[in-house]
From TrEMBL:
TM annotation in the entry: none
Signal sequence residues: none
Keywords of the record: ATP-binding, Nucleotide-binding
Organism superkingdom: Bacteria
Protein name: ATP-binding protein
Domain called IstB-like ATP-binding: residue spans: 97-201
Entry GO MF terms: ATP binding
Amino acid sequence: MTCDGTGWLYLRKPNGYEFARYCDCAANIKIQRLIQSAKVPKDYEAVTINSFDINIYEYKKDQNIAAMAKRLCINYVRDFERFKMEEKGLYLHSEKRGSDKTRLAISLLNALIKQTKVEGFYITTKNLFDELRASFNEGTTQTILNKFMSVNVLVLDDLGVEKTSEWIESTFTQILDTRMNQKLVTIITSNLTQDQLDEIYISGRISSRIKKMTVPIQMPSEDIRAKLAKNANDDILRDLLF
């Protein structure tokens, strides 16, 4: 007997008594719903930390850096409750675009959702501020802002690529302050080190908060995006030939 995707099994005892219980698939259904509500991109819904391939990097130095980043992320998930109590997220940074920071950050989010059933949300910083701007005329700005300020685990991707302004700095400071005060976890990726953030956010308020809220993790200085795309295309061509 299956639950047909409802998460509940309806059973009947020999005496005719009917009752319902959770199906074994209920946990998986909840996890999938949490991943979908976290707005994880479709291409990344199944990625895991364990499947993060350090050998995709060409140079030994970058492979070692990737191996360390992978190990740190595994340990972070393992000891998440401790790091949450210490109010620490992670800051994945690399000077190169396409170094797979996004993939590892989303792998972290997926792992936390699966292991702790935590509510999370993924968004690029550019899209975050685009959403807020679009909400001005609709009068929903505070509702959207509250979403970013209150979700248990927020993954902010590509910090520093957005065009900055006084409004952006002020709004971003408000988001970080609220999350810091509520002891919520923030995971960030950027092409900038934490110290270099002051070159973009000149008030210095952003970098100081991020340094308090996150532990920096270096990623390889190697662009592997094109290499991964080529490997995927090669696999498809191989399938088409047979």
